[in-house]
Amino acid sequence: MYQELNPLLLSQLRLAILSYLMVAREAEFNILKEKTGATSGNLSVQVGKLQEAGYITVEKTYKNNYPLTLCRITPEGIIAFEQFYQDLKTYFDNQKPPSP
Amino acid sequence: MQTTEKILSPLESLQVIRETIDIAKRTFRDNGFHFLLWGWLVAIASLVHWYLATNNLHEHPEMAWGIMVIIGMPAAIIREWRREKNKREPNVFSQWYNMIWLGFGISMILAITLAVKNHLSPTPFILILMGFATFMSGIMLKFRPLIFGAIVIWAGALWCLFLSDVQHLLVQGACAIFGYLLPGYLLNQEVKKGHVPGA
Questions:
Q1: pLDDT tens per residue across span A10-51
Q2: Considering only CB atoms, which chain A residues are within 8 Å of B199?
Q3: What is the 3-state secondary structure (H, E, C) of chain B?
Q4: Beta carbons of A24 and B90 less than 8 Å apart
Q5: Are B194 and B29 in contact (CB under 8 A)?
Q6: Residue B182 pLDDT more than 70?
Q7: Continuous H helices in B55-90
Q8: Shortest CB distance from A92 goes to which of B10, B20, B92?
Q9: CB contacts, 8 Å: B2 with chain A
Q10: pLDDT value of position B24
Q11: Which of B1, B12, B14 has the CB atom closest to A36's CB atom?
């Protein structure tokens, strides 16, 4: 069963990042750090993995002369999340005892 | 929420999704500003229109609505502009919320145009649309007073069937008070108390 779930999203932090971005659509790196309670280093690594998979984009820009890292979910990321959620539902449905 | 790099079980995955989405939704809030602004303006404009029309005090009593728009639109736009400017955490729920009210605004302009063109009172049509947008807001914010407000507004629209066009204005004023103002004040109180409807 575990093989059927997207292994990239079976990481707590990566799943938390993608779940947050499903609602927010985009978020500053510091906001993600605050919301997930992750360290900068760990968050940076997991954001990089999600970016490599094409699930999020990372834009480095400036706001009031301060550097700003903006993470944004991509259409592929939305599809991957929805598929993951669907797979989870299927998993739990299969756990239910068959009705007589 | 403390997150670590660990491989999740399906149940843990579901918990992470639920917790994170709850956290993200908490940034979506409404302090009832627009319900209070438009509640007062619609209530006053309805009564002014009704008073001018029943006493034949003005050739165009409907000008009350023009004045309402002149006051209300800049206030609403400035409020939204300030909110957008200060927003650090965008949220798909607030985008949907804004789209519902944008759709309401467009539908209302079309409904008024068609009703006036066909010599019908636009009030019942406006009330149906007001009820729908208020109902959707109540559902999205999970705030029951707005849902009850929407029911009052829809009931007002039905009541118009039995009244004259001028009396429709009184119903609209009452709907603004019970459908917008009362829920708006309650919503404002909730946010001041630190509760976040919708979270």
A1: 898 999 999 999 988 888 898 899 888 889 999 999 999 999
A2: none
A3: CCCCCCECCHHHHHHHHHHHHHHHHCCCCCCCHHHHHHHHHHHHHHHHHHHHHHCCCCCCCCHHHHHHHHHHHHHHHHHHHHHHHHCCCCCHHHHHHHHHHHHHHHHHHHHHHHHHHCCCCCHHHHHHHHHHHHHHHHHHHCCHHHHHHHHHHHHHHHHHHHCCHHHHHHHHHHHHHHHHHHHHHHHHHHHHCCCCCCC
A4: yes
A5: no
A6: yes
A7: 63-86
A8: B10
A9: 37
A10: 76
A11: B1
Q: What is the CATH number of domain A2-94?
A: 1.10.10.10
Residue with tokens 């480095």: A60
Who wins on pLDDT, B11 or A54? A54
Break chain A into its structural domains and give their ranges: 2-94
Interface of A with B (CB under 8 A): 1, 5, 9-13, 15-16, 19-20, 22-28, 31, 35-38, 42, 46, 84-85, 88, 91-92
pLDDT at B198 over 60: no
